[in-house]
Amino acid sequence: MKLINTVVPDLPLTILRDNQFVQANFSDYNRLVLVFYPQNFETTTITTLMKYSKQINRFTAQNIQVLAGSIESAFNIYAFNEQTKAKLDLFADKNAAISDYFGVNDKGKCIHGVVIIINQVIKFVGVGAELEPRVVLDLFEQLQ
C-alpha cells in the first residue's frame, strides 16, 4: 500500500503523557514523528527511547511532537515508563491497528520504524531500521 503523500487516517491513540493516560487522534497533531520499537524492557528499546528523550528539546523547539510506541498494553507501557523515565509521550497499540497500518507489525511484534507526518500527510515511512534522532530531524527539515 502506498502511504507517502496520503492523509493519515484519524486513528485513536492511547497516550501516556506525564504519567497520565490521554486519548488523542492523529488529527490532533500537525508535525509528528512516530517511533515504533519492538518491545518494552528490551535493551535496544531502552537505548532507542533514551536517545530520543535526550533530544526531545530539539524536536519541541521546531514544534515537532514525538510519540513512541509498540504493540503493548497501556499498563505495560506505564510500567516501562516508570522504569525508564523517558521524556517522551508513549502510545499503546494493543490491537495493532496503528502498527498494521504503517507496516511495522511482524506477527504481533513491532519492528523498528519511523514515520513523519506533516499536517496529517504522511511524508516518510522507514521500516526495519533504527534511525538516530538527528537523522530524523534532518529528514523532517528536508520534507517540509
TrEMBL record:
Source superkingdom: Eukaryota
GO CC terms, sorted: cytosol
Name under which the protein is recorded: Peroxiredoxin
Family (UniProt): Belongs to the peroxiredoxin family. AhpC/Prx1 subfamily.
Pfam family, one: AhpC-TSA
Oxidoreductase in keyword set: yes
Swiss-Prot/TrEMBL keywords: Oxidoreductase
Lineage, top ranks: Eukaryota, Metamonada, Diplomonadida, Hexamitidae, Hexamitinae
GO molecular function annotations of the record: thioredoxin peroxidase activity
SUPFAM superfamilies: Thioredoxin-like
BP terms from Gene Ontology: cell redox homeostasis; cellular response to stress; hydrogen peroxide catabolic process; response to oxidative stress
Location of the Alkyl hydroperoxide reductase subunit C/ Thiol specific antioxidant domain: 7-118
